[in-house]
Structures are given as C-alpha cells and as structure tokens.
Amino acid sequence: MTTARPTVWRSLLREIRGNRSAQWAVAVLFFLIVCSLGAPWLAQHDPLTLNLESARFVPPFFSEGGSLQHPFGTDGSGRDVFSRVLHGGRISLVLGFLPVALGAGLGVPLGLLSGYLGGRTDEFLMRLNDCLLAFPAILLALILVAFLGQGIVNLMIAVGMAYAPTFARVARSATLGERSKEYVTSAHANGASLTRILFKHVLPNILNSVVVVATMSFASALLESAGLSFLGLGVRPPTPEWGAMLAEGKADFYQAWWTLVFPGAAIFLTVFCLNVLGDSLRDALDPRSSRG
Amino acid sequence: MFARQALRRFAQSVPVLLFLTLLLFWALKLIPGDIALVMAGERATPERVAYIRASLRLDDPWWVQYGLYLKRLVLEGDLGHSLFHDQAISNLFATAIPATVELASAALLIAIPVGLFLGVVSAVARRTWWDRVASFISLTGVSMPIFWLALLLMWFFSLNLGWLPTSGRLSDEVVFDSATDSLFRMYTVDGIWLGVTGGGWDVFLSALRYLTLPAIALSTIPMAHICRMTRSAMLDVLQQDYIRTARAKGVPQFKVVLKHAARNAALPVVTVLFLQAGALFGGAVITETMFAWPGLGKLLVESISSRDFPMVQSGTLFVGAVFVLFNLLGDLTVGWLDPRTKQGRSGGGAN
Known about the structure:
The complex is a heterodimer. Chain A is an all-alpha fold. Chain A has helices at residues 4-17, 20-37, 39-42, 81-117, 119-133, 137-148, 152-179, 182-189, 194-230, 242-249, 258-285. Chain B has a two-stranded antiparallel ribbon with strand order 1-2. At the A-B interface, helix 5, helix 6, helix 9 and helix 11 of A face helix 1, helix 6, helix 7, helix 10 and helix 13 of B.
C-alpha cells in the first residue's frame, strides 16, 4: 500500500488537468504564493519603513501623480503598499494554511480512530464532536482569542481548533467506508499495530476527502483570520497582513482608496481561487454530487 | 410521530448548550494571571478585587464555581454584570437584540429571494451563460471578505455618489428620541408605526436609508450559500425520472420547475436557510462593527477588546444559543416538510 500516496496526488492532478477553471485557479494561486515567497526580492521597499515627509498618499502608478516607484501607491505613513501586500501575503497565507494543518492534525487522527474502533469510543468522540460542530467556527475562534489573548500564535491556535471537528467528522465517515475492506482485514490479520493500520493503510485511502475539506477550509480560515485581524483581534498593525492592512486603511479611505483596494483584492482573489479549486475537486472526487 | 421526533431533537440540544457553558466557564480559567485582578482592572482597589473574588467564589473548588454560574444563569436568568459598561448585561442585550434582529431580517429579505432565484435559474438553465453568471455571483459571494465589501460599498455609495450614510441608524435631522419614542427599538418598524398612525414617514425613510448598506453587505454570504445549495439540490432533483415523466407528459417547464421539482429540492435549502439565519440573528460581528450598528456583534467585539469577560461569556453563550435554536427549528421544519416523516405518522411504521 506504499504506492497509495502518490496515486492520490496523481488522481488529484489529473482532475485539475481536466478542468479549465481549476487550472486557472491553480495558476493564480501559484503566482500569488511565488510573489509572497519572493517578497524580499520583488518588493523595492521595506514594508515597515515610514516616510512621513515626502511620500504620504502617493497614488498608484496608473493614476495621476503616481509612478512605478510605488506601483500600488503609499499609505498614510508613506509606506509602500505594493511591498506591504507582498509581505502581507506571507503572513496571510500562513494564517490560512497553518490553522488548517493544525485542524487536520488534530481532527484526522481522531476521526480515523473513532471510525475504525467504532462502539463506545466512536459514540463518545462523535457526541463531543457534534457539540463543537453545533457552533459556527468563527464563534469558537472568537471565544479562544478572547480568553487566550490576541496575537498571531493565538489566532492560529484559535482558528485551527475551530476546524478540527470538521476534519474529524469527514475522516470518520471516510474511515467507516474503508474499515471492512479486505486490505484492512489482512493488515489486521498480519498483526499490524493500530497506528500502522490507521496511518499506513487507511489514511492514504481517505486522503481524497481530507484534501477536499482542507482546500475549502483553507479558503474560509484565510477569510476568518483576516476578519479577526481586521477587528483588531489577530495580527496587529503595523505588521503587514491583509486584514490588518484593511483595518489601518479604513481611516484613510476617503483620501486613498488604494490602501484598501489592493489588500482586499488579494484576499478575495486567493479565497476565490481556493473555492474554485475546492469545488472542482469535490465534484470530481465525490460521485454523488452533480457536476455543473 | 412528528411530535416525538421533535421532542427528542429538542432534548438533544440541551447537552450542546450545557457543553457551551462548560467551555465558557473553562475559558475564563485560561486567562493568564489572577482572574479577579484582570477583571477588576489595573487601578482597582484591593477591596474591589476581594469583592470580585468573593462574588465568583474563586477560592472554592471549580464545581462549586460552575454550579453557582449555572444556578445564576438558568434559575435566576442572571446574565451577569458588564465590567466595562457597569450595567446589567440583560439591559445591554435589551437594546442590542432589536438592532441585530432588524439588520438580520433586512439582510434575509434580500438574501432569500435573490439566492433562490439565482439558484433556480442556474439549475434550470444549466451550462448556459445564465448559469455561469449566477455561479460566478454565488462563488464571489462566498469568497468576498465582508469587511472589504462593506468598505467598497461605503466608498461607492456614500463617498462617490453621496446617496447613503455609512454609520449609525438614524439621521440627526429627524425628530425622534430613541429613548422615549421608540416602541420596538427597531427604527424601521417604529417608522412604519409612526407613518400608519399619522406621524409622517420621515423616520421610516431615514431609518431605511441607514439600514440599506449594512443589510446589503450582510446579505452577501447567506445569499451565496442559499444560491449554491438551491442549484445543487435542483440539479439533483431535475435529473430524476419523475421529472422526465412530467416533461414527457407535456407539463409546461415553469410548472415542472416550480411544482414538481421545487417541492423536493426544498429540504436541503431549508436546512441551509435556517443555518444562515441562525448565524445572522446571533449578531453580525464584522458588519455591525463596520457600520457602527449597535447590535450584538458589535457589543461582543467591544467586550473582547476591553477584556470585559462576563460580557464575553454571556454574549457568546447567547450567540451559541441562537445558533442552536435556529438549527433546531431548521431540523423541525425539514422533519415537518419531509413526506417520509408524514408517511411514518400515518402508517405508524418504525420511523
């Protein structure tokens, strides 16, 4: 079963290749990720350097008075918006990705265990899970942020914990479908340990469903992290993060629309592409859902 | 059969709410440092700290504290006292809830018809450009950061066009004292009441102008979810045999869609509808903060920023309870609509 893992990725790749909108989404996401990773080299200015005398509210290059010196203009403190959007991408993308990884890391093992063992354990774990699923993710994140205190790490923990129940639910129902299959029975008969059966044998076969949920969750986690930062409950200014940038630009938006349009567009574009990708993967991998 | 199912479903939501109280109770313990000190504030007198310590029974074991918390909450209906506002939390709720209800209802009034219409159109006209446009709108809706949309709406409609105000609930020019003249604490409803009873329509018109932008911003996400669910439910149903039969019999298209298909596609749509309504009536955290709308969401965010923990506890509990309640209502409605449940009732089967 060691070959199962590459097969999953290969089948995902095949689906993407066969779908025009998924191709576009992947291309745009790839571009955004490369730009964010390359921020230190692509951005001409430091995202934190203030320039209060000469460069406050310079408009973007295509407007009157703008120049390619500051392609997206500058904000009220004379900081380069283009550099801040690029650098902000690093934090914002991580704030979408790490919570999902944390949620999957907590939820998937629980779901595997619950689905495989069944019986009382399953009953108990899923009841607990249902209690958590009964509330919107943002509410759980809000509670945790409120009581843990604000900051990047706490924000990621809060959003991540809020996503764990979804992953547990999905992993459990996928495991239920695999549990009685022959490869599992034979691994069990061969004396494989529980951990080995779950992670080496079952996990690769349920990875499809997990990847679909992860893509969708990535999109909403990014939105939620940015939203919490916007409310001042996550990343604090002057750290360049898309949500925090919008919070800062809010005060200046009568004078400088560009301080808002670019970071907001970056969030929207990323989330939109992730949703397109998630939709096409779900349609491809879930035979029940109708194809559009 | 339905009554028994309803009762069982109702009983299931009790442990969920108890679990939330426990979660909120433990969340208070997560705060680093002495809770009494944190709650009293930096410049509090030792007496005040001691008073808070005693009122929360912080020196007793946790189950005593939790029991006391539950007793106050359930038996006495005491939601606690806000540290920041220095008022009973129930008083704060009394003004915030109507504001939230007004905004949420307005948003749903936009979201439901638009979402249903777009969803049905894109399912019926599948793979045409109608479908593409509708799908694009709904996908945009779920991907839109609502705070960004709100800012763009303000920028366009208020700053550029000057049509609509950006924050608050009523213009200063209108003669209306919210403390004494407001019967419903929802100014559009008050305005209609005034208009009907002969007091003129200016309050209603002003309130409506203030309500429009936040309601549009808030309606985006539920509209998109309703549209997506309607589309996929309608597509599922339209592929079934009885629809083909109806079409073969020569039933006109609009009748097939509205009568034969819509009835069966309604169940998942109703579930989504109630889920979205539950999220809205619990207070729109971001929209209310953006438009300075004095509802529950804004109250909650302010209480988090000001570390007003009793307010955070009761606020989240209330939001959670509303969400659970709407979930329950949604399940009950689906159970009531579902022909399979009714069959069980008449046949007395094993349902």
